[in-house]
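RECORD TYPE: inverse folding
INPUT: C-alpha cells
STRUCTURE:
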C-alpha cells in the first residue's frame, strides 16, 4: 500500500516539474524577445534615407559657393559627388565675427588641389550618411545598451560662432562644378551638395585633410 502511494505521488510530481520548466522557458523566451526587439529598435536607422527637396548652391563671381541662409536638410541615395574631378577648390569665407589681422594672418580665400583630386573625391564619397554616422557613434561611445538617437543629425546646429566658413568646389572637365557647403558652418558636421548630405564628424576633418594634402603638393 505504501509503495503504491509513493508511486502515485511520484507520478503527480513529474508533470509539475515539466510544467515549471515550460513556464521558466516561456518567461525566458518572452524576456529575450522583448530585449531583442528593444535592441533592434534602439540600433535601427532613426532617420529616412531620402529627405528634403534638392536645391542648387550658387557660385559667386570668385567661383566660391555663396553661403546663404540655412536650408532644409536634404539627402538621397547614392554617392555624395560624381567621380572624375580634376581639381578641388577649398574656399575660406570670413563671417561677421571675423576681425581682419587679429592675432593670426588671414587664411587665403582660395586654395586649389590638383594632384590627388581623384583620391580626395573618393574620400568624400566614403563619408557616412547620418544613420551610419550615428551607428558609428553608438559603437564607439555607448555602453552595453545603445544610446538613443539625438535630434536629427545635420539639422540641429549648435550655437557656435565661426570666424570663417569653409566650403569646397569640385571641378570636372566634362560637367559643371559641384559645390559643397557645411550645413552648420565651420569646417565639420554635415557636408551637403544640395542633393545629398554626408557627415564629416570624425578627425581628421576634410578641411584638415585637404590642407595636409595641399601642403604636400
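DESIGNED SEQUENCE:
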Amino acid at each position: 500500500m505504501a509503495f503504491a502511494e509513493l508511486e502515485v505521488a511520484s507520478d503527480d510530481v513529474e508533470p509539475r516539474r515539466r510544467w515549471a520548466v515550460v513556464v521558466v522557458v516561456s518567461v525566458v523566451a518572452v524576456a529575450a524577445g522583448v530585449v531583442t526587439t528593444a535592441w533592434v529598435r534602439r540600433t535601427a536607422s532613426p532617420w529616412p534615407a531620402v529627405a528634403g527637396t534638392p536645391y542648387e548652391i550658387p557660385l559667386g563671381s570668385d567661383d566660391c559657393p555663396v553661403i546663404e541662409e540655412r536650408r532644409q536638410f536634404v539627402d538621397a541615395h547614392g554617392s555624395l559627388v560624381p567621380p572624375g574631378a580634376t581639381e578641388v577648390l577649398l574656399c575660406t569665407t570670413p563671417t561677421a565675427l571675423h576681425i581682419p589681422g587679429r592675432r593670426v594672418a588671414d587664411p587665403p580665400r582660395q586654395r586649389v588641389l590638383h594632384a590627388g583630386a581623384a583620391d580626395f573625391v573618393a574620400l568624400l564619397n566614403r563619408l557616412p550618411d547620418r544613420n551610419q554616422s550615428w551607428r558609428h557613434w553608438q559603437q564607439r561611445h555607448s555602453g552595453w545598451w545603445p544610446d538613443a538617437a539625438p535630434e536629427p543629425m545635420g539639422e540641429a546646429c549648435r550655437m557656435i560662432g565661426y570666424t570663417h566658413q569653409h566650403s569646397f568646389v569640385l571641378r570636372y572637365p566634362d560637367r559643371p562644378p559641384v559645390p559643397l557647403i557645411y550645413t552648420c558652418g565651420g569646417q565639420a558636421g554635415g557636408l551637403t551638395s544640395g542633393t545629398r548630405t554626408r557627415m564629416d564628424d570624425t578627425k581628421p576633418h576634410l578641411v584638415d585633410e585637404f590642407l595636409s594634402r595641399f601642403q604636400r603638393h
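NOTES: The chain has four helices and six strands.
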